[in-house]
TrEMBL record:
It comes from Euroglyphus maynei (Mayne's house dust mite). Transmembrane segments: none annotated. The keyword Cytoplasm does not apply. InterPro entries: Cystatin_dom (IPR000010), Cystatin_sf (IPR046350). PANTHER family: CYSTATIN. It comes from the Eukaryota. Residues 1-19 form the signal peptide. This is Cystatin-C-like protein.
Length: 135
């Protein structure tokens, strides 16, 4: 319990969200808009989920996270990220690209505007893609 409080304190201080403790229940904070200078904080999370999100794209082509366009954060027994981003379609074919080869797929041929809702508990290396959609 002590270590969880410790990490929550780190998250609170690093993203500066307002939070309150509701009795014995989870810590739930308000949703905060991250300033563009802080969009980089979600990049490792997005890259960790990139292949999972690409698996949901109904396309034979590999997609890469291209640019974070908007980020909201919320403290919920960890942190919840609401991310709007450009998912770049490349010319690499999924069925012909292995995990190592993905790094070479950087030629964006088309931009898809996507949104991901992620719940992360970084201290146990856990991140769930709660919602994902592209228009
Ligand atoms: C990979 O997918 C493409 C596009 O769907 C298809 O034309 C091609 O035959 C596939 N290649 C292999 C090796 O399955």
């Amino acid at each position: 319990m002590k270590s969880i409080s410790f990490f929550v304190a780190i998250i609170l201080s690093s993203v500066q969200v307002y939070a309150f403790v509701d009795g014995n229940g989870p810590i739930v904070g308000g949703i905060s808009n991250a300033p563009p200078d802080n969009y980089h904080i979600v990049v490792p999370t997005m890259l960790a989920l990139e292949r999972e999100m690409d698996g949901k794209m109904n396309s034979p082509f590999v997609h890469r996270v291209n640019k974070i366009k908007d980020l909201k954060t919320q403290v919920v027994a960890g942190i919840r990220y609401y991310v709007k981003f450009d998912f770049g379609q490349t010319s690499c074919l999924k069925n012909a690209t292995n995990a190592v080869g993905i790094a070479q797929c950087n030629d964006v041929t088309k931009i898809h505007k996507c949104e991901a809702d992620i719940w992360e508990q970084a201290w146990i290396d856990k991140r769930d893609l709660l919602n994902f959609k592209c228009n």
